[in-house]
Write a structure and sequence with these properties.
Shape: globular
Strand content: 5-15%
Number of helices: 25
Structural class: alpha/beta
Helix content: 40-55%
Number of strands: 18
Distance between the termini: 25 Å
Low-confidence stretches: 1-9
Mean pLDDT: 90
Radius of gyration: 26 Å
């Protein structure tokens, strides 16, 4: 979808003019994602298809009036090949002319005439078109997925069909697809089955012995196979609804965000990119859940107290306890990461049985769904992977005046980080940007891979917006700074609060071209933030330099390492006495250095609990364990690292030494 050609939707609603196009989008998602899907692939090649970089279908929603402008259509669809136009019946003549003039691979299809026979024919045409490019002996797979309409609420159904088709596994689909978990469990089973069969092949197990060895291999792989999980949790902050009331004719009673078919489409599109699990949870979030997040953000802004933060997090868990069904818990337990389509900070919740919030267990990337039309635009746009390699460029835009104490502390931090990164081969430049013009100029001349916006954040409750301040008297929401680089780090306070459904700079920077944005829910300490950003660049540089880094390692995974191992900073920075002890070198090596070296043995599900125990064990070596216990108990500490969120598609930003994008 090209944002320049669709009107801005009403706040919190879906543009109903797009509703007829949902059938075409859903249909397109049944077509092959690439030419390999038309082949009869060996098991190892199928595994490569599902474990490589996720590649989803790219769909452009373009007003049918533009079919009368072939050159414009050609520019808008330049990234789509092979291309198919799906148009209303009364625009088929124009669609045919455009398709012929541009030379699209498939003839246009009527929006009201999509069925199984159409799908079969499109698969046949594409397979035939690609067949001449394959070496002799390559075998085509003529089977096509089963076309279904309307959009099923089961977000994994399409993934299940595609995976079963590639593996030649018979699939009996029930007529009732109301369960959000049934197909997700099926995908999980097939992924374990695929891993098991590939493992047996790699071990050279004979066909005669495979049947006997297979159950054991399934049990073994079931314990280690992890699959990306896409989840949608519906719900809108009451404050967002109040602010939308009266805007563009929307009233509180007519405010409508109930489009479950769109959320199902978002999840299905994301999950089918790598045939992984997708779960759609409707009516999942209550107003009480958003109120708890708003109270947490408000309390943190007023000066957080560890005991009060713990109480609010417990209240948040209580308000959301209904979402943790047995099936959902099981899906999270076997997930490798989570893509969350929601307006809610899911990572703050604690999974039943864990003692630390979900963001410590798994990498989580957020895709906000207000407004829902925009969420669909971003999800359907082409996903182009980018790789961070040695010498990647970082621009730190320092927007805080030098007269500000925070600005002076910030500059000292950037100088330390700059010196360290220079030694690591990272091109990090700190630039004074006291105005939006200066920032735009710095971006245009530097063309960085990463932008760090070092600024004061602002949250204006009266207008329900959050952004950053530039210099002495300018503010920005991020939509007036020009094109953004792939990754933006907002080194500022409460840039993307969620309790009130705030329109915020983090979300708007994605519109400006950023693939991923690291933002904050609450005001963060400048010194803690400097440690966090420094650790992020340190781990990123290390991953790039390490030849053993897996080829599809992503920025999301690097960030999760930072967020998890930053726990020791959380424990020590909020307590001056504990910090003095942790950084002292009475025995030659400080306790914090001891914490960070060796096998720390921290369990992600119990991260803070284990970190406390490790710190106390280190303290016991010098007889300081009782003092450390006392400091951890009172005044306690703030889990500040949990207050960062990664927005957008950080999984598309890859790191490592590979010379080619997978």
């Amino acid at each position: 979808m090209q944002s320049a050609f669709i009107r801005e939707p009403q706040p919190g609603t879906f543009d109903e003019e797009v509703l007829p196009a949902l059938a075409g989008i859903h249909y397109a998602m049944h077509l092959p994602k690439n030419r390999f899907e038309t082949l009869d692939l060996p098991l190892i090649a199928i595994k490569d298809q599902v474990s490589g970089f996720p590649r989803a279908h790219s769909v452009a929603l373009i007003p049918d009036a533009l079919l009368d402008s072939p050159k414009l259509i050609e520019r808008l669809t330049a990234a789509f090949e092979p291309a198919l136009i799906i148009a209303p019946a009364d625009r088929m003549e124009a669609a045919g002319k455009v398709s012929d003039q541009i030379g699209f691979a498939l003839p246009p299809a009527r929006l009201d005439a999509l069925d199984q026979s159409t799908l079969d024919e499109h698969w046949r045409l594409l397979a035939s078109r690609w067949y001449d490019d394959w070496p002799l002996g390559v075998v085509l797979d003529p089977a096509t997925p089963r076309w279904s309409w309307p959009i099923p609420p089961d977000g994994s159904l399409l993934s299940l069909q595609r995976l079963a088709r590639m593996m030649a596994v018979p699939l009996e689909l029930s007529e009732d697809q109301e369960s959000p978990f049934e197909s997700a469990a099926g995908v999980r089973h097939l992924r374990v089955r695929l891993d098991s069969l590939v493992e047996l092949e790699n071990r050279g197990v004979d066909v005669e012995d495979a049947a006997e060895a297979f159950p054991g291999a399934m049990r073994e792989r079931s314990n280690v196979t992890r699959t990306r999980l896409t989840v949608s949790l519906s719900g809108t902050a009451p404050r967002y609804v109040r602010f939308s009331s009266g805007a563009d004719g929307v009233t509180r009673t007519t405010f409508n965000d109930h489009y479950p078919q769109v959320r199902s489409l978002l999840v299905a599109h994301s999950a089918s990119a790598d045939n992984s699990m997708g779960i759609v949870l409707e009516d999942a979030l209550t107003p009480q859940a958003f109120h708890a997040v708003a109270d947490l953000e408000r309390h943190w802004a007023e000066g957080p107290r560890p005991a009060a933060v713990r109480r609010i997090l417990r209240r948040l868990n209580h308000a959301t306890s209904a979402i943790w069904s047995k099936d959902f818990v099981a899906a999270v337990h076997c997930a490798s990461s989570i893509d969350a389509f929601t307006n809610f900070p899911l990572g703050l919740l604690t999974l039943p049985g864990d003692s630390s919030p979900l963001s410590t267990r798994l990498p989580i990337s957020y895709h906000t769904i207000n407004p829902l039309t925009r969420a669909l635009q971003f999800e359907l746009s082409p996903q182009v992977p980018r790789r961070f390699q040695a010498g990647f460029k970082v621009l730190v835009a320092e927007c805080i005046p030098t007269s500000d104490p925070v600005g002076r502390a910030s500059r000292r931090g950037w100088q330390t980080i700059s010196d360290e990164m220079s030694a690591a081969g990272v091109d990090l430049t700190v630039t004074e940007t006291p105005s939006k013009d200066a920032l735009r100029s710095a971006l245009a001349s530097s063309l960085p891979d990463v932008l760090v916006l070092s600024a004061h954040g602002f949250y204006a409750p009266d207008s329900n917006i959050a952004g950053v301040a530039i210099g002495e008297d300018e503010i920005t929401m991020g939509d007036d700074l020009g094109a953004m680089p792939p990754l933006v780090i907002l080194s500022a306070c409460h840039t993307s609060p969620r309790g009130g459904g705030v329109v915020n700079i983090g979300d708007l920077l994605l519109r400006a071209g950023a693939d991923a944005v690291l933002s904050t829910l609450v005001p963060v300490d400048v010194h803690h933030n400097a440690q966090t950003v420094a650790r992020f660049f340190r781990y990123l540089a290390r991953a790039i330099a390490d030849t053993t880094t897996a080829p599809n390692t992503s920025i999301l995974e690097i960030w999760h390492q930072v967020q998890s191992l930053n726990v020791v900073i959380d424990l020590t920075y909020g307590n001056p006495k504990l910090a003095d002890w942790a950084f002292s070198k009475a025995t030659g090596i400080s306790p914090i250095e001891q914490f960070m070296t060796g096998d720390h043995g921290l369990r992600h599900a119990r991260l803070y609990e284990d970190a406390e125990a490790r710190l106390i064990t280190i303290a016991a070596r010098t007889g300081d364990d009782e003092r450390v216990r006392s400091w951890l108990r009172s005044p306690g500490y703030l889990p500040e690292s949990l207050m960062y969120t990664m927005l957008g598609k950080p999984s598309s930003l890859l790191v490592g030494t590979a010379s080619e994008i997978p």
